[in-house]
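Question (not urgent): is this output format expected?
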Amino acid sequence: MSRVTLYVTDLDGTLLCDRGTLKPRAAAMLNSFIDGGVRFSYCTARGLASAGEIMADVKLNTPVLLMNGVFIYDPLTGEYPVKNMFGERQRELLQRAVTDNGETPMVFAFIDGVERMSYISGAENLKTHLSRRKGDKRRRPVKRTESMFTGDIFYAAFLDPRNKPALDAVFTEKNGFRVSCYTDTYPPHQLWYEVFAAEAGKANAVRKLKELTGADELVCFGDNANDIPMFEAADRCYAVGNAIPELKAIADGIIGTNEQYGVPVFIERELFPEIERREFTDCLPDKERFAWAVSRALERERTTIGTLNEKTIHNALKYYYCDESGHEARFGGFYADGACEDGFLEVQSANFTYLAKKLPRMLAVSRVTVVYPFERMTHLYSINEQTGEVISESHRTNNSYSKLFLELYRLKAFLTNPNLTIRIAELEIDKKVYYKDERKLRRRGMKKEKCPTALLGERVLGCAEDYARFLPEGLDGQFTRAELQKLTRSTDAGLMLSVLEFVGTVRRCGKRGNSILYEKTGGEA
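Got this back:
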């Protein structure tokens, strides 16, 4: 019988992106894991309304941990297997601590069976937080302090408390409390001082969830100080790259940041380890084979062989990289351009978004190579359609990778998958444009032809070091986006940095004035 691993992640700053939302690709990855039987859950300081809305696209099969472990909630049944409420004594001590010290916390309770969040209307320390929760139906503003302590109380949050030492003296384990104190992930980075019943807390909650699910192993992910107890309770624990140093120090390993899909990528690599393959690196083009591939592609077009309406460049690269017997391979309701000893082959000149539906299934069982045709050198011919005479000709060399990085950005969430390789085919192209006469008047339906004449070189992108070759010479050890833009010129530095940061080629290391500073990582993933 196989061992069952339970994966539990924090949300804000760990699974969620910097905007506090779950990216669609992350949700899709998690759903594919869950569909495969993986036990996945989250442990958050958020309540059900907030966390439930953010995680609505994930089809959870395991109870989740809310309010830093105050509740264990089962999304399949809508029930709470565990509730850790304040007793009468804790309720009295909480009210006294708030009143004696002039604090203005948020107090959470069930009032007439409905979860509510009571707070003093207009409290300065709550304004920023509440401005991000305008649609929260739990909000219950009151005018008097005593009005906050209605119902069955289970949790209180003090933002930037006025008298923390006094609160520490009251909210002790001896008095039946547990406290979590940390700096908020989001601006203005307030100090959060959270109070709940002693039986609650992330550590107790994840232990209880492991027991409820019958898991053999508990693996946790986090970013902040309130995740330390959860890490101490885990069998294995991993800090995201953007985590605080204190958490990284006790983690078993450091994974990608929240913006790099750190948690789902880690789980993906555990579930689908790298598939063995022959070494697939840059190499000198086989000129004879490429010339044959172009002639074969042209022959196919003349005889209308095949079912797909494909262009010469696309077909030529298919013949070059894959034997014809493997063309148009069917898999799981999809067609791949080819299948060979190195796995599936896809030739895609634009809009990598179309690959997003295929890749999850393909990468789970095989290596996938995406070939991107890069038109390095173009010979442009303007031709009189009536006489066939060449009206004019010109030549240009393309050194801009903007289109390439746009496509890589569209496929960004897959780039760290160990079974995906991007292969850039640098081509020499003949482009012919047919005009009505020598005046080169444009008209609708103008005939255009584009045919590859040579494969000039190839680049293979499979790891952080491969992407580092796009960084221009003369770039300082630390640099801003504007400084990179000066050296890359026609390539969009913003898109480039987004991709390079995601794959681990560069990382943020501070600020220079209002500009973000980046540095090369040396290829560390």
